[in-house]
Design goal:
CATH topology: DNA Binding (I), subunit A
Order of helices and strands: HEEHEE
Strand order of the largest sheet: 1-2
Radius of gyration: 25 Å
Number of domains: 1
Bound molecules: zinc ion
């Protein structure tokens, strides 16, 4: 995957292609007054590309909130994977006895 730099010219072309609309909240971005970022529709960490097909403008504030959420999803995906691999070793069966004076007494 070749990564091209997001130059001012390239950013402007992307902004115009999306009619200056925030990809996340759907509101217009006032490019002269509001900060905006190039947002990856599929995050790079989830295998998304850094090209125009996977990018859209988004308010800096919206982008920040989504990046945080994506990071949470990625962490969750990793946790689920870890749990899957560890499941066999960590799952303990409930013992079917109770203790009586410290001695296990089997239920009948
Ligand atoms: Zn927005």
């Amino acid at each position: 995957m070749t990564r091209r730099r997001w130059t001012a010219k390239r950013r402007l072309a992307l902004f115009e292609a999306h009619k200056g609309t925030c990809h996340i909240c759907g509101e217009k971005i006032d490019g002269t007054r509001e900060a905006w970022d190039v947002e990856h529709i599929i995050p790079l960490a989830m295998g998304g590309d850094d090209d125009e097909g996977n990018c859209a403008p988004a308010h800096a504030s919206c982008h920040k909130a989504k990046t945080k959420e994506d990071a949470g999803n990625i962490a969750k995906a990793n946790r689920v994977r870890a749990k899957h691999f560890g499941a066999r070793d960590t799952t303990k069966r409930k013992m079917s006895y109770r203790r009586f004076n410290g001695e296990p007494v089997w239920r009948d």
